[in-house]
């Protein structure tokens, strides 16, 4: 399977970000990523939640030769629907309809100033979107924080999920129980306001890409940095702080034995993600984010789960190894694991 390139118009806008060796100023995008182009047409789902009108941006990409199945792609904390570009092209090429939403608080969706962010709420929002689109029993694929959301979705709606796929999900361990000190929302907010292109690039190199940076990752740095430096940066940082608090305080690991749908678990073996671990004492920090062990433990805990490991990948194998990842994903969807129970 060949590597799918980013759409030219999308790439030209995204590459406005400062990259190594460039002197261009960093673009500033609006609070709903206004000014940043996605590789497919963006649609919007308007609804009311927690007594306020909201809009959820999403991609709904249909194949030329449909196979009758739909895949829903749930992005991670520092990702957006657009970052699934390669997977959308591969899946639609294989006959799947693909829906990729931007969750509330992220990317091109609403940034409410007062919202109780929970994984249950985000799952309910996603369920409402799929109901509006008339989609029944999709495959739910989630990466990173989206993996936590996908697990909650499968727990809430087990009869409405054909298959669950989690890609390097966070929440495989309870960081607080392991010694991560309490982090207030105000402190998260202060940290988020300091986000820069350099800090994003440094973190992603070490965590997402196993120490190997490539120019093709630069659009996603520009996307995040532009969102965090634009005219709505305070609203973006505040929702980001609320979301980090949700991630840390709602580990899903304890509920893995309750998952009752066929499950695939994709784990980049060089991942070391543990949100907030830089604030932990050194002896605690050393115990967090060991994904080779965490992946095996999760696969053992989820009834009938199948584990697929990517030895050379970090937190984002779908981006660092798109060809291998897309091939494994499509093969996994064609031959889903059993849904046996323990």
Automatic annotation (TrEMBL):
Source taxon at top rank: Bacteria
Start and end residues of each stretch annotated as Disordered: 312-342
SUPFAM superfamilies: alpha/beta-Hydrolases
Record Gene3D superfamilies: alpha/beta hydrolase
Location of the AB hydrolase-1 domain: 70-322
Name this protein carries in UniProt: Pimeloyl-ACP methyl ester carboxylesterase
């Amino acid at each position: 399977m060949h590597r799918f390139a980013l759409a030219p118009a999308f790439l030209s806008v995204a590459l406005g970000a400062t990259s190594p060796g460039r002197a261009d100023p960093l673009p500033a995008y609006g609070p709903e990523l206004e000014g940043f182009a996605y590789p497919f047409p963006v649609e919007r789902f308007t609804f009311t939640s927690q007594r306020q009108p909201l809009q959820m941006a999403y991609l709904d990409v249909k194949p030329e030769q449909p196979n009758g199945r739909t895949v829903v792609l749930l992005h991670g904390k520092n990702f957006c629907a657009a970052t699934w570009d390669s997977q959308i092209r591969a899946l639609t090429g294989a006959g799947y309809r693909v829906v990729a939403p931007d969750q509330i608080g992220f990317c091109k969706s609403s940034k409410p100033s007062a919202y109780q962010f929970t994984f249950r709420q985000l799952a309910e929002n996603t369920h409402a979107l799929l109901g509006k689109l008339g989609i029944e029993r999709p495959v739910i694929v989630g990466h990173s924080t989206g993996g936590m959301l996908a697990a909650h979705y499968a727990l809430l709606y087990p009869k409405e999920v054909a298959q669950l796929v989690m890609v390097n999900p966070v929440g495989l361990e309870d960081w607080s129980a392991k010694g991560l000190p309490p982090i207030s929302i105000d402190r998260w907010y202060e940290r988020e306001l300091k986000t820069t292109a350099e800090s994003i690039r440094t973190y992603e190199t070490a965590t997402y890409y196993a120490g190997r940076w490539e120019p093709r990752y630069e659009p996603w740095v520009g996307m995040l940095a532009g969102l965090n430096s634009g005219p709505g940066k305070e609203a973006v940082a505040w929702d980001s702080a609320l979301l980090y608090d949700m991630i840390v305080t709602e580990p899903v690991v304890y509920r893995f034995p309750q998952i009752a749908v066929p499950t695939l678990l994709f784990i980049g073996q060089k991942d070391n993600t543990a949100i907030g671990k830089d604030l932990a004492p050194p002896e605690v920090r050393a115990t967090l984010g060991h994904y080779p062990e965490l992946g095996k433990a999760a696969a053992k805990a989820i009834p009938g789960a199948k584990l697929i490991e990517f030895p050379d990948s970090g937190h984002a194998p779908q981006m660092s190894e798109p060809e291998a990842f897309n091939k494994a994903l499509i093969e996994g969807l064609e031959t889903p694991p059993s849904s046996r129970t323990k």
